[in-house]
Amino acid sequence: MDIELQKLIDLALRKGASHAEVYQSKLKSDSAIFETNNLKRLENSQSEGIALRLWKEGSSGLAVAYGDFDSDKLVDQAIILSTLNNTEIIKPNYSHINLQPHQGEFIPTEQLIASGEDTIRQLRDIYIEAICSGEFIYSEQFTCLVNSVGLHCEYSKSLVNYYLELECSNGKDFLSVHDTKLTQGKIETQQIAKNILERLEWAKKTTSAPKGYIPVLFTPNGAAMLWNTVSEALNSKFVLEKTSPWSNKLQKQVMSNSLTISQNPRYKPHTIPFDDEGTVTQELSLIKKGDLQQFYSNLTSAKRLGIKSTGNGFRPNLKSYPTPVLINLIVEPGKENFKDLIKKLDYGIIVDLVLGEKIDISGDFSVNIDSGYSIQEGSINGRIKDTMITGNVYKILENIIGIANDSRWVNSTYAPSLLAEGLSVIN
Q1: Element holding 347 (H helix, E strand)
Q2: Are strands 329-331 and 413-415 parallel, antiparallel or unpaired?
Q3: Alpha-carbon distance 325 to 304, whole Å?
Q4: Does the reported pTM lie above 0.90?
Q5: Sign of CA dihedral 362, 367, 372, 377
Q6: Rounded-to-integer distance, Cα 129 and Cα 125, Å
Q7: pLDDT by residue (tens digit) across 163-182?
């Protein structure tokens, strides 16, 4: 622990705070950026920030500093802000020490460059006219949380995030396909290249999508819009506000009995040992065979619900108070492979990527398909354009007729492809 963090807490207590906590975040990254098939530039960045939260006369105040800062001014600012807030019952987390070993491997910039060049070469060996761009990023993250009642938590990890996009044209038709992956340490670009080449093969011709209420096969990318809404419905904050449609449905069926959903904060690369309030993260059984098991919470929402925090209190940024956030949403895969689900269909569409804003907690949506494909007689017969789907997330999840065994990470969700019946397709 940085000794300055403890000094900051001691200073806050001397100035009249009853409790105090300091949250420290450090991030540095190195990037290799590719444009028009070549390395364009190298970038590196480094940032460090501290958030001081204190309680005085029952109210909390939060002040933030970046880089070098004046401790007295930071504490004074937090005290002033506390006078503007209502009395808060929640206090800092209990005393314990949780120091985690570093996770991940160091990746030199030379390896980022070589991986980018090699992957672009693989793609252009097959599509010589293609224009490729991408970004390969190595980052190191450090998080430390200490408070005035003896809590001290630290963890750090190294990550590699890589994104690659291929653009090509076929006469008047323009096509862009991209993929991304996040790992701890070892760079694994083979799957990215495979995914891009597969979608280029699917898109060799353009065709019209069938209209009306038809089956829709969501890839893990396409299904991401569904899981974002599910995450909100499971949030105890929205349960308390009565905006979640599942507020009064604990131990009741809320989706198809073929679906089982959990949280596992130990899954790499998104491993998180504790939340931003110092509570140890834990595996959660959220939905089991369609039945709602529990909601996730932080200290504030848990106290209001009369339960223990599940360790899901995270800060959207340093200037914000912790709020419930789901980590590592895991959807149990099925037993069929993706191609077998396609073979089941006389007609339908594949949704791989959609355009538009995030679907709100009501679940209703009407979105344009950015990347989609038509299915005819059990096979993919081309890319679809100018097509929209409308429906409701919860209704889709009640009517799942197939789950693939092709789970992959999309942001912090690990989920397979889903086959849903009867969505409205418009073109």
Answers
A1: strand 347-354
A2: parallel
A3: 17
A4: yes
A5: positive
A6: 9
A7: 999 998 866 778 899 999 99
Predicted local distance difference test score (pLDDT) of residue 405:
97
Mean pLDDT for all residues in the chain:
94
Q: What dihedral do alpha carbons 280, 282, 287, 291 form, nearest 10°?
A: -80
Are the C-beta atoms of residues 401 and 419 closer than 8 Å to each other?
Answer: yes
Query: What digits encode the pLDDT tens for the residues 151-162?
Result: 999 999 999 999
DSSP H or E stretch at residue 342: helix 338-343
pLDDT in tens, 342-368: 999 999 999 999 998 789 999 999 999
Contacts for 424 with CB less than 8 Å, ≥ 6 apart:
212, 213, 389, 390, 391
The dihedral of CA 334, 273, 32, 116: what is its sign? negative
Amino acid at 15: K
CB atoms within 10 A of CB 41: 9
- CATH 3.30.2290.10 residue window(s) in the chain: 3-196
Judge whether 49 and 142 are in contact, CB under 8 Å. Answer: no
Partnered with residue 44 across adjacent β-strands are 30
The beta strands (E) that lie in 171-260 are given as 173-183, 206-207, 212-218
Burial class (CB in 10 A: 0-12, 13-18, 19+), 97: exposed
The conformation of residue 219, written as its DSSP 8-state character, comes to -
* Residue 288 main-chain phi, psi, to 5 deg: -120, 115
CATH topology of domain 3-196: PmbA/TldD fold (3.30.2290)
**Residue pair 419/217 in contact by the 8 Å Cβ criterion:** yes
The closest alpha carbon to 151, from 89, 99, 78, belongs to 99
Residue 26 to residues 154, 392, 416, 426: CA-CA distances in angstroms? 11, 40, 33, 47
The pLDDT-based confidence of 402 (bands split at 50, 70, 90) is: very high
- The per-residue pLDDT for range 122-147, each reduced to its tens digit, is 999 999 999 999 999 999 999 999 99
Judge whether 191 and 119 are in contact, CB under 8 Å: no
Give 223's DSSP letter. Answer: T
Tokens encoding 343: 């073979």
